[in-house]
Specification:
This protein is mostly helical. The protein has a single domain, classed as Orthogonal Bundle (Arc Repressor Mutant, subunit A), CATH 1.10.10. The protein contains four helices and two strands. Strands 1-2 form a two-stranded antiparallel ribbon. Helix 2 packs across helix 4. It is globular and about 50 Å long.
């Protein structure tokens, strides 16, 4: 998964530091939003020809890394 995560880049000069794909002006957020909306990987790659299949997997791996690191606290119901 480390190689995939290397595709995720951060630069304050590109999209104000949001995580992007390989320094492109394509945010991880946008890729995840398209996937969540049910857009097929093939359509995303067609609409954004500078993306590669591993870029989409990298966005998913990045999201996984964030969620896996979340602290979960059990709340007491009253």
């Amino acid at each position: 998964m480390g190689e995939l995560l290397d595709r995720i880049t951060f630069s304050k000069e590109v999209l104000c530091g949001k995580p992007t794909i390989r320094g492109l002006r394509i945010s991880v957020e946008m890729v995840l939003e398209l996937l969540a909306a049910g857009e097929a990987e093939e359509n995303i790659l067609e609409d954004y020809p500078q993306l590669e299949p591993d870029d989409i997997r990298a966005a998913l791996a990045y999201a996984h890394r964030l969620v896996a690191g979340e602290a979960v606290y059990q709340t007491q119901r009253g």
